[in-house]
Structure formats: C-alpha cells, structure tokens
Design a protein that fits this description.
Layout lengths: L1 E7 L9 H10 L4 E6 L3 H14 L3 E10 L5 E4 L1 E3 L26 E3 L2 H13 L4 E4 L6 H11 L4 E7 L6 H12 L6
Parallel strand pairs: 1-2, 1-3, 3-8, 4-7
Antiparallel strand pairs: 4-8, 5-6
Helix pairs in contact: 1-5, 2-4, 3-5
C-alpha cells in the first residue's frame, strides 16, 4: 500500500512553501508518493482528484498546508463547504463566500481515529500540536473538503509558517507513524 502526500507551491510572495518541503521529504521515503499542488482553487482540487485516481491502491492521503499564525502543528478535524479567504489564489481568483460544492454538506469530518492517531504521533514526538476544527477559508480548506469527499482515508495537517518546527522533523514524525508498514 502507498501513502499519497500533498503539499503546496509558494504563495503570497513567499520564496518557498514548507508544506512542499515536507511533502518532498516524505515522497523520498519508501511507500510514500508526493505531489506539490498549485495554490489555486480549481487546480488544487483537480490535481488531488487526478493524483488519487492515478493510485487506486493507495491506503491514505496526507495533505499538508501552511498556517501563517501560531507555532504548533494543527491536525484538522473538519472541512467547511465555503471559500472565505480575503486574498486571491495564485491565479487571481478571490473566492470569498462561494461554496466548494453547490448543495454539499456544510461540514465534512475526518475519521476521528485518524485525527487522534495523527495528533498522538506529534504529541508523542514532543512536537507542539493542537486539534483544529477550522481548516481556514483558503485553498487548504477547499482541498480538505475535496479530500474528505473521496473514497480514501485522508488527513490534513497545517504546519506553522514560523520555523520553530523544522519540516524535516514533521516529515520524520509522519514517516515513523504512517511509514512503519513499509519497513522490513
């Protein structure tokens, strides 16, 4: 079985995106395949769906995004059916107040066992972590809502913009927790 991992390209004038760095680090480990997604509403959704369809035997998806405030890893439990960011995506689309899926459920919940397992992995490694019920209103929430509609287990993790938690440490925690099945 394979774990699919997504991160995002740079946005808001940043030279790089630590979420992409974590995804690339994981993608270099046995059993993990990564893809860096565009920071666009339509592009991120389409590429996630294509990525999952390309790997029908994958066991799960770990999506990683950047949270520009706070100093802890955020394990997201819910995605909301609304785009509410105050800044445009990398294509210039300002999707303020638009639903992600017309007539879709207001919220979608991740598998609670997967949320708890992910939270515990960071906590047990001594990494500052919080449970969150708001994946934001930007591309991260849109991607998570899309992921939770697909027929594959998935989790979304926000990592802090502040470099207090190194991407390599985040990748090590996720590799230790979800990559054990690939080690002999």
């Amino acid at each position: 079985m394979t774990v699919l991992v997504t991160g995002f390209e740079p946005f808001k004038g940043l030279p790089d995106n630590p979420a992409a760095t974590v995804a690339e680090l994981l993608g270099g480990q046995p059993g993990f395949i990564h893809r860096v997604l565009p920071v666009t509403y339509a592009g991120a959704r389409a590429q996630l769906k294509a990525f999952v369809n390309e790997h029908p035997k994958a066991s799960m998806v770990i999506s990683i995004g950047l949270w520009d405030s706070g100093d802890a890893v955020r394990v997201e439990a819910l995605a909301h059916n609304v785009q509410r960011a105050s800044i445009p995506d990398n294509a210039g689309d300002l999707a303020m107040g638009r639903p992600i899926v017309a007539d879709g459920p207001k919220t979608l919940a991740a598998n609670p066992k997967l949320v708890c397992r992910t939270f515990a992995a960071f906590e047990n490694a001594g990494v500052s972590v919080i449970n969150s019920t708001d994946a934001g209103g930007y591309i991260c929430n849109t991607l998570y809502y899309t992921l939770l509609q697909l027929n594959i287990p998935g989790i979304f993790i926000h990592i802090p913009l502040a470099t207090l938690i190194a991407p390599v440490l985040i990748a090590q925690v996720l590799t230790a927790e979800f990559g054990a099945q690939f080690r002999s």
